[in-house]
Amino acid sequence: MSDLDRKLRETVAYAYANATAVKARFDAAGVTTDDIQTIDDLVKLPILRKDEMVQLQQANPPFGGFLGVAPSQVSHIFFSPGPLYEPAPPADDDVWEISKQMLRGCGFVPGDVVLVSLSYHLTPAGFLFDNALARLGCTVIPGGIGNSDLQLQMMRELGCTGYVGTPSFLMSLIRKAEEQGLNFTTDFKLKKAMVSAEPLPPSLRQTFTETYGIAIANAYGTAEFGILAVDRGDGVPMAMQLLPEPIIQLLDPETGEPVGAGSPGEVVVTNFSRVYPMIRFGTGDMAVNVDPNPGQSRQEERSMILVGRSGEAVKVRGMFVHPNQLRFAASQVPGVQGVQAVVTRPDLNDVLTLTAVVADGTGSEALAEGLKKAVTAVCRLRVDSVEFAASLPENAPGIVDARVWE
């Protein structure tokens, strides 16, 4: 039995005994704690959706019956969109050690002076990174959001060697420094950054590393669980390596079953928290499963490529397809400026038609074939036909499901 399986059994037993909502979910599913012995057994439980959590908190405020300790043991309470209230992890929670090791693996070391430019107000991002960095032995400057002139001044005068925040804010600080006639690579000491909360395009990563000499990592996390995965830029492009804890699964949103390597699934997480035990919580994020050794790999050996929210995905011939997968595939084909998919169902069979945006509205057979191959490689789905257009309507959806179900 793996260490994750052992921790799961302990967490399930504790949560069932101490969190009324967990007990209610088990009982409603006809599942006992003895039924959950390994990660594979989690499929016996339904996925807990964020919308359901909102309803549960409204019915039983503030935590919906998921608090596993006395309220007096909660050190901080945060707020995330939903709305949802989230208690902070306690000081002895394993999340701190996992986060500390993740930061160390991304180049942060004791003695670093780190500007944290994430929100410290209501949401937990600034708090979580602040604590992990302090435990690592770094000096933290709690910049928060905004006040770019002051943050730039502090970054220079305090000799910041590290940055934590969004990539766009880091770039805005660099641009502001250059507008002031400063040379960012010589007048500042910043050499490492951990960015999060928004995408990091490959072109922007390249600018940070090659133009400004900043080693950059991109973290993915949620308000409920903190950091779950990180992209250090040394593996599959855009792939984020999973942290060893908590339990992170990519599941079919409809069946709750794990998806295979190369397929997209919803990010579903089970933690080991005694304060706020979340078992099979669906984040609503969709990601492609990157597994080098299916069935044999440890969690930290697997990665995922985030593609968007589950509500935007459409299942075609049994495979979930997300608009961002199509956009990524189209970006691999020179001459294609955009793409939209339309799914129809003549004769009870799914038909996938692509409209590709090209400069003059017309394209060649070779271009169509290249796009078909790119989409098949990314989405593992056959494209039936390709049409060409000079443009698409403003705010056009990436996938149109025009199927009629009778």
Describe the structure.
The protein is of the alpha/beta class and 406 residues long. It has a domain of 88 residues: ANL, C-terminal domain (GMP Synthetase, Chain A, domain 3, 2-Layer Sandwich), CATH 3.30.300.30. It is built from eleven helices and 19 strands. Strands 4-3-5-6-7-8-9-13-12-11-10 form an eleven-stranded mixed beta sheet, sandwiched between helices. Strands 18-17-16-19 form a four-stranded mixed beta sheet, covered by helices on one side. The chain has a two-stranded antiparallel sheet with strand order 1-2. A hairpin with a 3-residue loop joins strand 7 and strand 8. It is globular, with a radius of gyration of 23 Å.
Tags for this model:
406 residues, alpha/beta, GMP Synthetase, Chain A, domain 3, eleven-stranded mixed beta sheet, four-stranded mixed beta sheet, 11 helices, 30% helix, 24% strand, globular
How would you summarize this macromolecular structure in one to three sentences?
This protein is an alpha/beta fold. It is built from eleven helices and 19 strands.
| Overall strand count | 19
Chain oligomer state: single chain
Q: In terms of per-residue confidence, which ranges show pLDDT below 50 for 5 or more consecutive residues?
A: none
Strand order of the largest sheet: 4-3-5-6-7-8-9-13-12-11-10
Strand fraction band? 15-25%
The N- and C-terminal alpha carbons lie at a distance of: 47 Å
Q: Portion of residues in helices?
A: 25-40%
* General form: globular
